[in-house]
């Protein structure tokens, strides 16, 4: 199995860019092929599309091939993949899994508490704590988030400490439907006979993450609501059973269905970002769950949830998050 996955990874790395240029493709990854809605044990490249179209409505260049190097391609409709932010109770001390947000953001989820240079920090998403790059270091972080009644200064729990900038797309090339990819996927419908957009190369991201330092260590509860203590960190693989506790949907579970995924995420009508080496699980989140810590069955931290659609959940690998933010560990 290990050799088969490595061969599939090699193939995906070679063809990923070409597949992602196809106008209706929003994600690619490695998973198992489904036949008649039943999972098989055959590895496949999964091409997630906003909507599945009849072959007669697509040109030859727009079609996803049936196989590459003997590896089948499985096309799955997932809708538009959006960063999960949606507009509950105040917690002191605050555990992971509760409402939080930058003072100008509606609400997301406090993922968990981590350690860096001997200090406690809140770990969540950039778009939750740093307002999608628009915030400044030192800005107020509220718990609960503003949408859930959080007010400044009464509910200020922390100050923004660090974030990894999200590299957004600069724009799209000649496109009859719209200039941005967001316009492409939003304008496309079942009434459209043909997709004619051509996408340009986009800068790549691996994480949507940020840290905030608490005003007081008395506000720190190093566990996750409805889950408990985090036992350490781990690495998720195909088939890993995962769970999360989030502001909107609470405790949910899922399975890692794709690895090495490249995903195009819509943050707004004018902001879109491309993410690589992501983990994809099934529908285990909704808006407001962004920032949730994702754990395996041993309560090891394996990822940071940040986006999804009605059918999938997109997760940063925790290895990338810790490296980018220079986090020492989790307790």
Automatic annotation (TrEMBL):
Record GO terms (molecular function): serine-type endopeptidase activity
Matching SUPFAM superfamilies: Trypsin-like serine proteases
Keyword DNA damage: no
Keyword annotations: Disulfide bond, Hydrolase, Protease, Serine protease
Keyword Mitochondrion: no
Gene Ontology BP terms: proteolysis
Entries under InterPro entries matching the protein: Pept_S1A_streptogrisin (IPR001316), Peptidase_S1_PA (IPR009003), Peptidase_S1_PA_chymotrypsin (IPR043504)
Similarity annotation: Belongs to the peptidase S1 family.
Protein's name in the database: Serine protease
Lineage start: Bacteria, Pseudomonadati, Calditrichota, Calditrichia, Calditrichales
